[in-house]
Amino acid sequence: MSIGNKIKELRIQKGMTQEGLSEKTDLNIRTIQRIENEEVDPRSYTLQVIANALEVDYQYLIEEPDNNKRLHNENKLWLCLLHLSGIFILVFPPLIIWYLKKDKVEKINTHAKDVLNFQISMFIYLIIAGLLTLVLIGLPIAIFLGIFSIIVVLINTIKIIINKPYNYPLSLNIFTNKIKV
Known about the structure:
By secondary structure, this protein is an all-alpha fold. It has 2 domains: 3-62, 434 Repressor (Amino-terminal Domain); 66-161, no CATH class. Helices cover 67% and strands 0% of the residues. The chain has 9 helices and no strands. The chain has helices spanning 3-13, 18-25, 29-36, 44-54, 58-62, 65-84, 92-101, 108-132, 138-161. The longest helix is centred in the middle third of the chain and has 25 residues, at 108-132.
């Protein structure tokens, strides 16, 4: 949505006329009309005055929809990398991603806990399989767990890409995602 359309929409939502906005901003009514009709590109000072009058953040007026899309794609990229890091069955890659992006990527806390629960669970199962190699059944179990974990990680990464819910079966609930009230 263009700046002019945003201003017009906000003005109408506030029940304000162009004259009312003109009075509140000390801008000429013709200036308001030209901005809303996209006949001119308003200066930053003018936008700040209008934002204050409409009681919105200046950034909202200048932010382009592509910026939101870029941010969404960047968040999705980090979530995909987080899930994909589960292939290595090492807790360090997801821990590093989680630590670096915990305040910047939406929903990364929940995803990181799920990935770590799965990786730690697979690591515990591999240790048990390693102990069972003494009775010869452990090697096939270890091979199965390795293949199983790679398939689960790849499927869940694809689900993140296409915005579908993911699932990590056989995960122990070490890190909880329950919301405390």
